[in-house]
């Protein structure tokens, strides 16, 4: 088996074990057994348990970010892009529950290297949402009423709410990605709406 394929199998197994058991409870023996390889081979390819965990965090963060970016079509209106990006986010987290658990539950508590990967992922997501909010305001003629700092704050709140809803959707198989999107948009869009409305023209000055 080519090395790249074998490494992918080991990472797949590691994500499942770390996601279900957490970092401290996870054993390299369990990962090797699930991957179908001898434990020394895991150490040979991916060195220590910490290195393996960081590799899992890096891969899962990249996969989630790629899924969100892939769900957004550049030519669509900003609101449509935001909805599609959120839908891609929820679809990915529901389809990859162990990967989401590694990112959301375990990575921040296990060392600076893994925490930095999650911070970088969140920064990218907040930046993407910020750009969409600013673009939507500009399209509606309300950009001058929405400052950069305010847009970032709105994006932070939206991403935080999305993370919480992903936990809810992951724990309840009856919740669909589309339902999670609708719930989030119903909650946040009314707050965004004033910034996405055209600025009314100033009334004419009365003649003296």
Automatic annotation (TrEMBL):
Keyword DNA-binding applies: yes
Domain (HTH tetR-type): residue spans on this chain: 4-64
GO molecular function: DNA-binding transcription factor activity; transcription cis-regulatory region binding
SUPFAM superfamilies found in the cross-reference section: Homeodomain-like, Tetracyclin repressor-like, C-terminal domain
Keyword Transport: no
DNA-binding region: 27-46
Keywords associated with the record: DNA-binding, Transcription, Transcription regulation
Database matches in Pfam families: TetR_C_46 (PF21943), TetR_N (PF00440)
Name of the protein: TetR family transcriptional regulator
């Amino acid at each position: 088996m080519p090395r790249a394929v074998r490494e992918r199998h080991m990472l797949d197994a590691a994500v499942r074990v770390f996601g279900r058991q957490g970092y401290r409870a996870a054993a390299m023996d369990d990962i090797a057994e699930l991957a179908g390889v001898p434990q020394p081979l895991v150490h040979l390819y991916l060195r220590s348990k910490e290195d393996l965990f960081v590799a899992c965090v890096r891969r899962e963060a990249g996969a989630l970010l790629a899924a969100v970016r892939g769900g957004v079509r550049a030519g669509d209106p900003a609101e449509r892009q935001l909805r599609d990006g959120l839908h891609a986010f929820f679809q990915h987290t529901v389809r990859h529950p162990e990967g989401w658990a590694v990112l959301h539950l375990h990575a921040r508590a296990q060392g600076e290297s893994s925490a930095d990967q999650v911070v970088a992922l969140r920064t990218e997501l907040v930046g993407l949402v910020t750009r969409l909010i600013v673009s939507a305001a500009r399209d509606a003629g309300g950009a001058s009423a929405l400052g950069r700092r305010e847009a970032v704050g709105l994006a932070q709140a939206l991403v935080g709410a999305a993370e919480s809803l992903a936990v809810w959707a992951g724990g309840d198989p009856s919740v669909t990605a589309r339902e999670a999107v609708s719930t989030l948009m119903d909650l946040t869009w009314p707050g965004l709406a004033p910034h996405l409305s055209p600025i009314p023209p100033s009334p004419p000055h009365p003649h003296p």
